[in-house]
Design brief:
Helix content is 75%, strand content 0%. By secondary structure, the protein is an all-alpha fold.
């Protein structure tokens, strides 16, 4: 029985492969955009919490996904990316929730 080898997706459909590779970053940026829209609409606390949670999601995606699937979320080493993203996300969320509403 002959074996059939498939050409990799990045050779068959390079644009689709590129879009799929950047899907984690796209999800994070969409959540950040929703947070910015919320801030623009006057609800700054909800917007900042959304942006902080987007950074936490970025850290979790960076931690769980392999390097070939994480796309531009991989900037530095995995440990550095996760620690900085998670720390910034938790700090932003904590500060937004700690500021008293006037």
């Amino acid at each position: 029985m002959p074996t059939v080898t498939r050409t990799p997706l990045y050779l068959r459909r390079p644009v689709l492969a590129g879009v799929l590779r950047q899907l984690p970053l796209t999800v994070v940026l969409l959540v950040v955009a929703a947070g910015l829209l919320s801030v623009t609409g006057g609800n700054w606390r909800r917007g900042l919490v959304l942006m902080g949670l987007a950074l936490v999601v970025a850290a979790v995606l960076r931690m769980l996904l392999p390097v070939r699937r994480v796309g531009f979320l991989a900037i530095r080493s995995q440990t550095t990316d996760v620690v900085l993203s998670l720390g910034a996300g938790l700090l932003l969320t904590g500060v937004a929730l700690a500021i008293p509403a006037v």
